[in-house]
Amino acid sequence: MEVPILSRLEDESPHTFVVPVKRINEGHDVQRFLVSKAYHDIMIFVLQLNRAMFPRYPRTVDGQRQSIVSWELDSPGGSLSASTQRLQGLLTELNAVVDEVPPDPGPRRFGNVAFRRWYGVVEARLSSLLQRHLPEKVLSFKASSNVSVEAELSSYLLGAFGSAQRLDYGTGHELSFLAFLGCIWKLGGFDGSSTGQEERGIVLGVIEPYLRLVRRLIKTYTLEPAGSHGVWGLDDHSFLPYLFGSAQYGPAISEQDEPPIEGSLANAPDPADVTKQAAVERERSKNMYFSAIGFIYDVKKGPFWEHSPMLYDISGVRSGWAKINKGMIKMYMAEVLSKFPVVQHFYFGSLFSWDEDPDAVPPPTTVHTSNQPSKSGPVNLTSHGVPIRSASQGAMEAPVRAKPASPAPFIGTAAPWAKQSSVTSPTTAFPSQTDQRSISQTPRLPPNFNPRPAATAQTSGQAAKGMPPPTKAPWAKAPDA
């Protein structure tokens, strides 16, 4: 099997760098993003990193099979490349700035404004930080314009730690850091290998330390979730640790195999262990999935099924960690890259381009994609993402929502696990990844769940009189007999 790899630029010829700009301004721009070169490159890079995290069958010696090789946090298996170590130094310096800028004292409902000072210090030092820590091959890449490579990459790095204006952090900022690493890859800053060693170094040696820094920023400056779905979202802040962490526990593959669709590594913890705090504490130092779960336990109280129902539902999957990983890829495309609140702040330059991918297949129109937010109200789209306009509308007028010919069918809850997914990838990187089955067909019920409490003498008597049972609300009184 030929594994798709994010393409690199030819370093012999100069490249025209540009300062990244905002392109997604309206809800219908998301459909255009899904057929862009940037979307294609993001998904190729995600799948490339994800595949590298699956355990491997080692090469046999004299026909004798050796033990399966897997990777834990802080143990990427082999020495880290010089580029990875330089980026670790960058994150270490950014982490030290937190010590320089303590949070303002006193309780606050929303984010601590000291984060703006942290952000300002980083912005002021950004040029020198990049000069010291970017790989030499990246810094020396020839430019054919007045815009330097540093000017294009700094936009993605500065957007990776949250919003100083809104005092929040979410998966859109995480996407910006992924793009920053993708830019370095495209410019030849990372050494490629057929064994995935460099990709594992990126995930365990750079992305995991980045997530630890972000968690410290969230706790220190009480950053709000950005674009969160509340309890119906996977996580308030991050997505990538669940993707790569589920791959860590997947079954072993050879270098020529496709990522599996079910099964688990021998001796891997049960997915249901996320509800057991002792098991989470044991595994969070080894695995990215459990590390993210551990952070949820750090910042949230109460039953796990209550504050994280999506993750609780996923913990009931019985087909193994590979099944969870496959579902996470589909969910990343649907809940991160296809959502206007998440991708509206992503910027496009020469490396992650807004230009249309000539090989992209337009995604099908769904209830969610056809009703994206708009500055002028909801907009209905055609199957190609074009706003529907009336015949009397001019080209510069705001689009209006077309009147449906018949009422839309009832679709029930919007939770991804409650219905079959209709989102497919515009790319063909791994066609088998776009299986239409959802992670879990039905929601997992919380422990000791009883949808219909046993009747009491009071409620039985009221039922006999044709009266409803009393409400549990503390301010309500029981009806008089």
Structure description:
The chain is built from 16 helices and four strands. It has helices at 29-33, 37-52, 82-100, 114-133, 136-139, 149-158, 171-186, 197-221, 240-248, 277-283, 288-299, 304-307, 309-314, 321-335, 340-343, 457-464; strands at 21-22, 168-169, 224-225, 347-348. The chain has a two-stranded antiparallel ribbon with strand order 1-4. Strands 2-3 form a two-stranded parallel ribbon. Helix 6 (149-158) packs antiparallel against helix 7. The longest helix is centred in the middle third of the chain and has 25 residues, at 197-221. Mean pLDDT is 80; it is low at 378-442 and 470-479.
**Secondary-structure-derived class:** mainly alpha
What is the assembly state of the chains in this entry?
single chain
Shape: globular
Strand order of the largest sheet: 1-4
| Average pLDDT metric | 80
How far apart are the termini?
A: 75 Å
Radius of gyration: 25 Å
Q: What percentage of amino acids are in beta strands?
A: under 5%
Which residue ranges are poorly predicted, with pLDDT under 50 across at least 5 consecutive positions? Answer: 378-442, 470-479
Q: Write down the secondary-structure element order.
A: EHHHHHHEHHEHHHHHHHEH
Number of helices: 16
* DSSP, total strands: 4
